[in-house]
Design brief:
Blueprint (H helix, E strand, L loop, with lengths): L6 E7 L4 E9 L5 E6 L7 E2 L14 E6 L2 E7 L5 E6 L7 E2 L29 E4 L5 E5 L6 E5 L2
Antiparallel strand pairs: 1-2, 2-3, 3-4, 5-6, 6-7, 7-8, 9-10, 10-11
Length: 151
């Protein structure tokens, strides 16, 4: 099932009282995708059918719990590293697009690690703006702002 397993983030659905883990896994086709597990073999599966993912795999990295969801960077259909969110379901997994000022080659186009850190209701992270300038961004879930530009 997995070439490597690494638990990266935990989501707790308060309404359903369901706990599960999100992780990056390699499927039988050697494609890196987003997987979920409740800790059992039957409760472990790849989240498939997600629109806009790269043919070689979403390859999620740096999974971080934020506001009841998991945010991560992953490859979109164009091969750009963008900001993604999941609630642990196929329907609830999508790239967050339309971020004003983000680089069209990917918000994380020149960063190895966005360094997501939840802090006081926000999620500061490293990103690249439309001019290719690296800087610190913050996500008060639903809107994104460039905090600091670096040169």
């Amino acid at each position: 099932m997995f070439a490597k397993q690494r638990i990266l983030a935990v989501i707790r659905r308060n309404a359903c009282k369901i706990n599960f883990f999100c992780l990056k896994g390699i499927d039988a086709n050697n494609t890196a995708g987003l997987w979920v597990t409740d800790g059992s073999a039957t409760g472990t599966h790849e989240i498939t059918g997600v629109s806009g993912t790269h043919p070689a795999g979403l390859s999620p990295r740096y999974l971080t719990v934020f506001n009841g969801n998991v945010l991560f960077d992953g490859f979109n259909a164009n091969g750009a590293l963008g900001l993604w969110v999941t609630d642990g379901t196929s329907a609830g997994t999508r790239e967050l697009t339309g971020i004003s000022g983000a680089n069209s080659a990917g918000l994380f186009s020149s960063f190895v690690n966005p360094d997501f850190t939840a802090f006081k209701g926000q999620l500061p992270f490293n990103g690249v703006n439309a001019s290719g300038i690296k800087g610190a961004w913050a996500a008060p879930f639903g809107s994104f702002v460039l905090l600091v530009r670096q040169r």
